[in-house]
């Protein structure tokens, strides 16, 4: 099992292949539909993003609130394809990795290849289990979006599967 | 004699059902997952099924939601003819949802205007009320996530359609959902009624015990055959291959018009959550 640390450089993930099982530690950012829309609007206007996106990992997740004594509530991945129309723009801005569930569009796959990024799959529908790997959470931006706000998460040994690698190899295309 | 039931009692019951449904996985679903795990030959699929079962345990032990998508809550009400509610039934249901969701730290995923979007809330729930015989009130809370709700399909068949066309439509709906909506799925099918009613039937089918075959023989055979064919699609847990693509296929049928044959498919993710109580 490969260990990786986020944020990462493109070289650090260049050896990953679709289907590889990895464990991820470090810092990741949650963002889903509305946050993606806002991030892309900011990029298009040339505004500063609420966090430096270069080398970062975005997790498609809208968690439930944390219970007492826990860092986060249930926090599984949401359907990645809803973010497809925004993803190429963010990859161009320097995003290096994404975590979600399910397929991506042809445009996203080619943008991943072009920018040498990576797309991971998290255990889908296992929000309670995934919460065990999250050690800290803080709000970064768009607080008004509630569960759709951008949160910075510190994760330790989060198990993931490489869905699309930097060469554009996709786990779902293998049939 | 008309029986009177207080709105407060309904509110308390709904609150309790929200918490139960979201934190403890339905027994029939858990046992179907365990069966699928025992049967699964694909190594990766087996490991994912193991994580899914573990997830249910972690949720129950720590009293956290099984899935962060705690749904657009659907509430099914069976209102006895010999029963009157003192106070507002819909008001009590929504208050119960709000307090249950708050207490158990469930997600506020409901936006008030579908086009303007904006802030998210816990309510309103989607309430389906049916008038039934008797003097009791049955309540079911189904907090269904939207990853799988987005995969719903409806087709208005001709009344002379071949059975194979219907089977293919149901199987292709599962193919379309593919890896995206958290397989292994429970496939709810509504056959008959009108367009709107077939969709409701498909959702209601998800409330049935998934390990019990349909009481109608021809529907039981259909459920079994479609289930076997779906499990040959090799979608598998997380869509990474394997024999477990559907934990079950459940059909609800209803009389329909001579000119039509509506069929709706409502797919549920493996985290099929619901809780019921009669008061």
Cα-based radius of gyration of chain B, to the nearest Å: 19 Å
For the largest interface, the chains and their residue counts are: A-B, 39 and 38 residues
Helix percentage of chain B:
25-40%
Give the proportion of residues in helices of chain A.
10-25%
**Quaternary organisation:** heterodimer
Q: Structural class of the secondary structure composition of chain A?
A: alpha/beta
- Overall number of domains of chain A: 1
Main traits of this protein?
heterodimer, A: 175 residues, alpha/beta, fumarase, 5-stranded mixed β-barrel, 5 helices, globular, B: 279 residues, 2 domains, 4-stranded mixed beta sheet, 8 helices, 12 strands
Task: Summarize the structure in words.
The complex is a heterodimer of chains A (about 180) and B (about 280). By secondary structure, chain A is an alpha/beta fold. Chain A has one domain: Fe-S hydro-lyase, tartrate dehydratase beta-type, catalytic domain (fumarase), CATH 3.20.130. Chain A contains five helices and seven strands; from the N terminus they run βαβαβαβαβαββ. Chain A has helices at about 10-15, 35-45, 85-90, 105-115, 125-130; strands at about 1-5, 20-30, 55-60, 95-100, 120, 135-140, 150-165. Chain A is globular and about 45 Å long. The two termini of chain A are about 25 Å apart. Chain B has helices at about 5-25, 25-40, 45-60, 90-105, 145-150, 165-175, 195-205, 215-230, and strands at about 5, 75-80, 85, 110-115, 115-120, 125-130, 135-140, 155, 185-195, 245-255, 260-270, 275-279. Chain B has two domains: about 5-25 and about 65-145, no CATH class; about 145-275, no CATH class. The interface between A and B is large, with 39 and 38 residues.
């Amino acid at each position: 099992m490969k260990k990786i640390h986020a944020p990462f450089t493109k070289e650090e993930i260049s050896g990953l292949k679709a289907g590889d099982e990895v464990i991820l530690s470090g810092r990741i950012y949650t963002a889903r539909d509305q946050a993606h829309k806002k991030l892309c609007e900011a990029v298009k206007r040339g505004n500063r993003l609420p966090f430096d996106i270069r080398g970062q990992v975005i997790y498609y997740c809208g968690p439930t609130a944390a219970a007492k004594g826990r860092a986060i509530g249930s926090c599984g991945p949401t359907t990645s394809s809803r973010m497809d129309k925004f993803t190429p723009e963010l990859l161009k801005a320097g995003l290096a990795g994404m975590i979600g569930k399910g397929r991506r569009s042809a445009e996203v796959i080619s943008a991943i290849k072009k920018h040498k990024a990576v797309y991971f799959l998290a255990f889908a529908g296992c929000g309670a289990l995934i919460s065990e790997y999250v050690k800290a959470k803080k709000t970064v931006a768009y607080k008004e979006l509630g569960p759709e706000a951008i949160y910075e998460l510190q994760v330790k040994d989060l198990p993931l599967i490489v869905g699309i690698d930097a060469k554009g190899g996709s786990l779902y295309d293998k049939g | 004699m008309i029986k009177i039931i207080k709105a407060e009692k309904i509110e308390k019951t709904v609150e309790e059902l929200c918490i139960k449904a979201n934190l403890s996985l339905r027994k029939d679903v858990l046992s179907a997952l365990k069966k699928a795990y025992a049967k699964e030959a694909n190594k990766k699929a087996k490991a994912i099924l193991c994580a899914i079962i573990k997830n249910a345990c972690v949720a129950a032990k720590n009293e956290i939601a099984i899935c962060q998508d705690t749904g657009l809550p659907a509430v099914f009400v069976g209102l006895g003819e010999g029963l009157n509610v003192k106070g507002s039934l819909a008001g009590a249901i929504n208050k119960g949802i709000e307090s249950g969701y708050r207490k158990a730290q469930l997600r506020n995923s409901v936006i008030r205007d579908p086009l303007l979007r904006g802030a998210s809330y816990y309510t309103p729930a989607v309430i389906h009320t049916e008038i039934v015989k008797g003097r009791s009130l049955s309540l079911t809370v189904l907090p269904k996530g939207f990853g799988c709700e987005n995969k719903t399909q409806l087709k208005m068949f001709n009344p002379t359609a071949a059975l194979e066309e219907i089977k293919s439509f149901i199987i292709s709906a599962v193919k379309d959902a593919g890896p995206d909506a958290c397989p292994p799925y429970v496939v709810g099918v509504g056959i008959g009624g009108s367009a709107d009613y077939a969709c409701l039937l498909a959702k209601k089918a998800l409330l049935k015990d998934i390990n019990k075959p349909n009481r109608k023989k021809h529907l039981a055979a259909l459920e079994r055959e479609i289930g076997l064919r779906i499990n040959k699609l090799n979608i598998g847990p997380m869509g990474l291959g394997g024999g477990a693509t559907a934990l079950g296929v459940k059909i609800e049928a209803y009389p329909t018009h001579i000119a039509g044959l509506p069929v709706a498919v409502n797919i549920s993710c493996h985290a099929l959550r619901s809780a019921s109580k009669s008061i």
